[in-house]
Amino acid sequence: MRVAFAGTPEFARLALDALIGAGHRIACVLTQPDRPSGRGMKLMPSPVKQAALAAGIPVLQPRSLRLDGKYPEDAEAARSALQDLAPEVMVVAAYGLILPQWVLDLPRHGCLNIHASLLPRWRGAAPIQRAIEAGDAVSGVTIMQMDAGLDTGDMLYRVERPLAPDETGASLHDGLAADGARAIVDVLARLEAGDAPAPVPQPEAGVCYADKLLKSESPLDFSRPAVELARRVRAFDPFPGTTMALPGFDQPVKVWGAQALPASGGPGRDVPAPGTIVDMGPDGIDVATADGVLRVTALQKPGGRRQPAAEFVRAYRGQA
Fold first, then answer.
1. DSSP conformational letter for 220
2. Is the pLDDT of residue 246 over 80?
3. Ordered alpha helix ranges (H), the chain
4. CA dist., res. 80 & res. 76, Å (int)
5. Global model pTM greater than 0.85
6. Is 118 annotated as a binding residue?
7. With 70 as the cut, is the pLDDT of residue 320 above it?
8. So what's the pLDDT on residue 266?
9. Would the annotation count 119 as a binding residue?
10. What is the mean pLDDT of residues 152-171?
11. Contact, 87 vs 2, CB < 8 A?
12. Binding residue per annotation — 46?
């Protein structure tokens, strides 16, 4: 099929590679403008742009697609290019720009979105991380027929993926990216064969919104239960990460591994205040929480590297 592809990060790159490998004609790629990155803050192309250029695919990088928005000249140029290319379908994966109605209406088969959630669970910006943070037992990918709403379109195809007990944001991202790439290839094959999956409206029950991840969420709040904090540590790996304060450090220490333990002690024993370090050894740093103990098992000091607890604690005690 003649496909226009819209996406930006690594999650989307896997889908683009799969579509190219399946023999689809990628008419063009839309991706976010180059952003400053790295220590030198040099402008860097997105993973999708890099893959498109390597494959010789034309790239469009409008700052907006709204004809009545802040950058109408960008939107008009993109519309003109897409009209000339006349794609049969647009595939969208973590693009990062809102698609106005003119984009949704332009391809003959509309716009299909690869969404990293079993809709209607976790509509919005960060479905992968919010699923882990909430303690979901299963996640997945939904191929959705896009409409003007926020992830509200009809569902065409769903793939489930159970969450492992040690699932992190990084591991679930990689698994769902691979699932999504396979799923969109299957859907386009059926669409091309005239056997398109029947659209299923999303149920109204069970809708959740996955808010955008913020760096302000990184500090661990030990007034919360240990099980919640352990899930957050895993969910926010690698971004935005989680942090805690430790005596001797001017800046917060990053926390990359943690597990929830039951509260120690018994009847008649004082319960440590949340945030109190109750033990420190090769197995980890144990911190009291509102319910149970959070054992921190992997840390990173400012300007350092990730370390297992045994290595970190040995150096930490040496500097005390």
1. -
2. yes
3. 10-21, 47-54, 72-85, 101-105, 127-134, 169-192, 226-235, 309-319
4. 6
5. yes
6. yes
7. no
8. 54
9. yes
10. 98
11. yes
12. no
